[in-house]
Design goal:
The complex is a heterodimer of chains A (about 120) and B (about 120).
Chain A (H helix, E strand, L loop, with lengths): L3 E4 L2 E4 L4 E8 L5 E7 L6 E7 L2 E5 L6 E7 L2 E7 L7 E8 L10 E2 L3 E5 L1
Parallel strand pairs in A: 2-11
Antiparallel strand pairs in A: 1-3, 3-8, 4-5, 4-9, 5-6, 7-8, 9-10, 9-11
Chain B lengths: L2 E3 L4 E5 L4 E3 L2 E3 L5 E8 L6 E7 L6 E3 L2 E6 L4 E6 L8 E9 L8 E2 L3 E6 L1
Parallel strand pairs in B: 2-12
Antiparallel strand pairs in B: 1-4, 3-9, 5-6, 5-10, 7-8, 8-9, 10-11, 10-12
The chains are: A mainly beta (about 120), B mainly beta (about 120).
Amino acid sequence: DTEVTQTPKHLVMGMTNKKSLKCEQHMGHRAMYWYKQKAKKPPELMFVYSYEKLSINESVPSRFSPECPNSSLLNLHLHALQPEDSALYLCASSHEGGYSSYEQYFGPGTRLTVT
Amino acid sequence: AQKVTQAQTEISVVEKEDVTLDCVYETRDTTYYLFWYKQPPSGELVFLIRRNSFDEQNEISGRYSWNFQKSTSSFNFTITASQVVDSAVYFCALSEADNQGGKLIFGQGTELSVKP
């Protein structure tokens, strides 16, 4: 079962709101990723968790706060976002963290609109 | 520096035509991995293939085939007898062995439109 699930599918939030995006995988993967994708652009890496530890933060603003409660779950906490943060947020997982040889499996994404 | 170039921004074909999507990459590593992903309008990126730098064998999977040539740093993707369901954005991506965390370097993507 190569499935990564993400909730919610769509989210509209004001600039003063606090919300969270959730990602789950049950493939036994030990690396999980958050990407941001703007229209007509490739995904941009935001964070990587490897064995439940944050291994990469691509200089993401602190209004985005990732959390990995266990090996199957990945959250992205959002606070005080700007309209330019509106995008498709994709979660992915791969077999092992820290190795570039494994393919990443992506979830369907959360379409976020910041008003 | 690592880089992936997909020079074709948009391609439009009629159903049953063959179509090739080009991918050219740059890397200084001798060990690296190349990927193709499909992103249909629904938004989810679907993994299609992974190829490592030591394996130049071409691969065929149904109507899909991939041509990896290290001499030209290219990893092209051909769809034979295209179908409307092949309409999507296709991304080529590179990951280097020295890169901790498995960071993918994506090309800009090629939007394929297959018309009935």
